[in-house]
Structure formats: structure tokens, C-alpha cells
Amino acid sequence: MSQSLSVVPAAPTRFRTLVEVLPAGRARAVTAVVLGAFVVAAVGQVAVPLWFTPVPLSLGTLAVLGVGAALGPRLAAASIGLFAVAGVLGAPAFAGGASGWAFASFGYILGYLPAAVLMGRLARTGRDRSVWRTFLGALLASTLVYAVGAPWLAVYAHLGVQDALALGVTPFLVGDAIKAAIVSVALPGLWAAQRFVAQSRTSGNPTA
Fold it and tell me: Whole-model pTM?
């Protein structure tokens, strides 16, 4: 009597953040932290000075949202921390090649940290798989940047609340909505691509 055996392909592993797609280990963590800091610094160089405010229009927030979701809260915090420390110590990491901390928009850089951590926490619960959930999460994370940046601007430039909002928040709201929209398309799209690749590999396994 013969018995036929069939091997059922294992279901694709459910990753909580995009970085977990890569092989686990200390090298992954270190590489992710360094690469995330580099991405935030590089993308943040795309900045447009505005004549009516000391705060430039920068793509840095877009990079922060993406890095936060991709790395998760712990690695994202380390990555943004590395970025900020490098800039404070003199590396031209901030928008326009700036460094140090004694300038009007430094508070927004400090606000990158809670924004990235929040995006990482949302990603770990699967909220970066949905377009609308990602969009709302990105908007919420962006408010954390303002929650730190606007008070810093007010103190540094000796502004009242209304002036700080007019110079440090209102001009950037439309841009942040666009950035949130970009992230809300990119992240679910990357997850869809990851699932497609995983399913393709699984379906391609031979059975016996």
C-alpha cells in the first residue's frame, strides 16, 4: 500500500513593518537606522525658502512619515535621533544644508521624532495597509511636528500665538495634506507589492 503525501505551501509571513521583510538581525537594524537618517536628511534638502516666514517649505516631513512607517517606532526613533544629533553636531543634515540648533525652524526637526514614532506605532497595527487609515495617520503625525515646531518658533522669534500660527503652521497645511496623500498611496502600494511577491514565491514552490 502506498501513501501519497502533499506539501501545503506555508502562508506568507505577516510582517508588521516593511523593514521586517529583510532578513532579521543586528545588521538589519543598524542599516535601517543609518539609511533612514540619510533619507530624511537627503529628502529634506528639497526645500523652498518663503519670503514671509523663517520656516522653509521642505519635503522632510514626507521622508519622516515614510521612515516612521517603514521602520516601526523603535528603529524610527533611533533613526530620527541620529539625524538630529548629526545635524546639531555640525553635519549639513537639515534643510538647505543647515546645522546646529539655534534657528527658527529647529523645533520642527524636534517634532520629527514623535511624528515618526506615531507613524511606526500605526504601522505595527496594520494601519499603513489602508489608504484612508494611512492618510489620517499621516495627518495626525504631521500635527505633532507643528505641536513642537510652532512653540519653538514663537519663543525663538518672539511671536505671539496668532503670528506663530500664521508663519509656522497655516502656510504649510495644504502641502502636508499632499504629503499625507503621497504616503497614503505609497505605503499600501508597497504592502500590495510585498504580498504579490510572497504569494508568487509560495505558489512557485514544488509540491510532492
Answer: 0.85
Residue 24: Cβ within 10 Å count: 9
Q: How far is CA 193 from CA 67, 81, 157, 198, in A?
A: 18, 30, 46, 9
Q: Where are the domains of the chain?
A: 18-199
Report the SS3 class of residue 187. Answer: helix
Tell me the pLDDT tens digit for each residue of 114-137: 999 999 999 999 888 889 999 999
Per-residue pLDDT tens digits for 151-197: 999 999 999 999 999 999 999 999 999 999 999 999 999 988 888 88
Hey, which CATH number is domain 18-199, 3.30.430.20, 3.40.630.190, 1.20.1600.10, 1.10.1760.20? 1.10.1760.20
For residues 76 and 116, the answer to whether their CB atoms sit within 8 Å is yes
Rounded distance, CA 57 to CA 46, Å?
Answer: 8
